[in-house]
Amino acid sequence: MGSSFRAFLNSPVGPKTTHFWGPVANWGFVAAGLADMKKPPEMISGNMTAVMCVYSALFMRFAWMVKPRNYLLLACHASNEAVQLCQLSRWAKGNGY
């Protein structure tokens, strides 16, 4: 095993911690949002999409402020924020806003 891989394995944000597995699991939100792009805007819940936007914005800040800084979580929630804002835009246009 290479020393750089071993360093990653044992790092404070490596796969032995929730700082790694939490963001990995959260990529499911991004995948679900992307899959929902094919659905008609009438099926989008404006309330839930707005909540997901707030949730991702809060966790982006958390990922930036936590020590050690969690770039994987930041990338995950930035991606989810983009997807959810796109969905919110589709919902708003579909409802005449």
TrEMBL record:
What Pfam family does this protein match (any one)? Answer: MPC
Q: Which GO terms describe its cellular component?
A: mitochondrial inner membrane
Q: Which family does it belong to?
A: Belongs to the mitochondrial pyruvate carrier (MPC) (TC 2.A.105) family.
Give start-end ranges for the coiled-coil region(s). Answer: none
TM segments?
44-64
- The primary location reported for this protein is mitochondrion
Gene Ontology BP, a term:
pyruvate import into mitochondria
Membrane topology of the entry: Multi-pass membrane protein
Function field = Mediates the uptake of pyruvate into mitochondria.
Keyword set for this entry? Membrane, Mitochondrion, Mitochondrion inner membrane, Transmembrane, Transmembrane helix, Transport
Localization per record: Mitochondrion inner membrane
This chain's source organism reads: Arachis hypogaea (Peanut)
Q: What is this protein called?
A: Mitochondrial pyruvate carrier
